[in-house]
Amino acid sequence: MADQKRDTKLLDELEKGPWPSFVKEIKNASKTSPVCDDLLGQLELSYEEKKGHWKHGGIVGVMGYGGGVIGRYSDVPEQFPQVAHFHTMRVNQPSGWFYTSGSLRTLCDIWERHGSGLTNMHGSTGDIVFLGTKTDELEPCFKELGEAGFDLGGSGSCMRTPSACAGMARCEWACYDTLKMCNDVTHQYQDELHRPPFPYKFKFKFSGCPNDCVASIARSDMSVIGTWKDEIQQDDAEVAAYAAAGMDIQNDVCANCPSKCMKWDGKKLSIDNHECVRCMHCINVMPKALRPGKERGATILIGAKAPIVQGALLASVLVPFVPADELMDTLKELVSRVWEFWDEYGKNRERIGELIQRVGMSNFLDAIGLDPIPQMVTAPRDNPYIFFKGEE
Amino acid sequence: MPTLELNGKAYVVDEDGFLEDPTVWNEDVAKDFAGIEGITDLTEEHWKMINYLRNYYLQFGIAPMIRKLCKETGFPLNKVYELFPSGPAKGACKLAGLPKPTGCV
Ligand code: SF4
Ligand code: SF4
């Protein structure tokens, strides 16, 4: 970089190799953004000293909202004055991350006017992340975002910005309209998104089929995954075409079926749909020959989280199948009961999954008024939880 | 530490404008800080919240959880934001002279 003032020996290592490099990107941005030099300087110092130089837990925000901005301050502001304040703004992404090039330009222009110009597309919750601005710029930036049709996302103990896979807009496997669900849920729970009311964060993620492209089963407190109830749709002519083209159906399809419910006799593929666990493997391998059934809907799962305060958890099935057209109503009813219970019994910074572990699944189900059924498992054909009460 | 000049008084605050020393709090602090948190007039309802937070803090040394605060003041969360537009943590706690609440990001 021509006008690079600092010596960034350690950071330069991160520019080597064929992969993308955030150091390269920040150096590039330093041509237009004055904060980048100080940002790299502070980071280099952190690498030298093996110590972070951001202070934890600033409280800044915009009027009317209790979240969406994360305060960051440097603990060496005299040395790096440009990053003395370096707040992050989270911006609610469009469902499925669909943008026009115009809207991306608008976002970047707003951020160059009011912040460092550096973005992270996207954060792990799904938001557009604007990195680095000063307290005075928050309100003007928020105002411009609003005028351009964008809103802040969630932060803190709130419903975090919901996210969804590309769903029906691009993907033939979608068993329900994930984009609509994500949008409807975002609008339905605006208060919970912007005004943190909960013991801790709560994430929704919507995947259209069991491929679960947004990893909802691992990374959302309430996970909605598309599935089907009837039989896999099968086109025998296309199966034959795959075989003729050299696909090893026995080994690559049948042998990898987790429930071993497929048979191939060299001519005919048969599926014992009763035993199928809807894993998507065969459909992914033979997309022209096989597709999800016609009776479509979703499974609602609860309780996943990444390892922050305690270890990671995977979600467990709460409702095995909800028809697509009943999904929003069922979700709303369920959510109101789950939140009420969590609100009443959750400890500070306890995720819903941890609360369920603490009180036990059967007490939780009792409290939200669901009867336990054998499908409430963390993996298909797994042992269900055992629900015996004293009197039974 | 930054100093905040308000109505002719100087307050030592942290970078987010919270009082460095919670013991210097008195009612004038709330009155002086109200303007920067978007409040024009401190009404009886504001004082109800401020006094609740103050007493809770003096008793337990921390800020209450949101649901407790709503339950015990009788203000639904939306009402809290009407009274304190910058929210319970940033607005109400600051006026009540609590140290900056630590939450998750
Ligand atoms: S989760 Fe399924 S429906 Fe959604 S994009 Fe992935 S494959 Fe398609
Ligand atoms: S979806 Fe999975 S379980 Fe079902 S038949 Fe195909 S490979 Fe087997």
Overall description:
The complex is a heterodimer of chains A (392) and B (105). In chain A, helix 8 (216-219) links the parallel strand 7 and strand 8. Chain A has 392 residues and is α+β, with helices and mostly antiparallel strands. The mean pLDDT of chain A is 93. Chain A has a 5-stranded antiparallel sheet with strand order 1-2-3-5-4, covered by helices on one side. In chain A, strands 6-7-8-13-14 form a 5-stranded mixed sheet. A two-stranded antiparallel ribbon of chain A has the order 9-12. In chain A, helix 4 (101-114) packs antiparallel against helix 5. Chain A is 32% helix and 16% strand. Helices cover 47% and strands 8% of the residues of chain B. Chain B is mostly helical and 105 residues long. Chain B has one domain (3-95): Orthogonal Bundle (Arc Repressor Mutant, subunit A). Chain B starts with a strand and ends in a 10-residue tail after the last helix. Chain B has 5 helices and 2 strands; from the N terminus they run E-E-H-H-H-H-H. The mean pLDDT of chain B is 92. In chain B, strand 1 (3-6) and strand 2 (9-12) form a beta hairpin. In chain B, strands 1-2 form a two-stranded antiparallel sheet. Chains A and B meet through strand 1 and strand 2 of A and helix 3, helix 4 and helix 5 of B. Residues 257-259, 261-262, 271, 276-283 of chain A line the site of one iron/sulfur cluster (SF4).
Summarize it.
Chain A has 392 residues and is of the alpha+beta class. Chain A has helices spanning 9-12, 22-29, 35-49, 101-114, 138-147, 178-188, 190-194, 216-219, 236-244, 249-253, 281-285, 327-345, 352-359, 361-368; strands at residues 54-58, 69-74, 88-91, 118-121, 128-131, 163-164, 204-207, 222-228, 233-234, 262-264, 269-271, 290-291, 296-302, 316-323.
Characteristics of this structure?
heterodimer; A: 392 residues; five-stranded mixed sheet; 14 strands; globular; B: 105 residues; mainly alpha; two-stranded antiparallel ribbon; 2 strands; binds iron/sulfur cluster
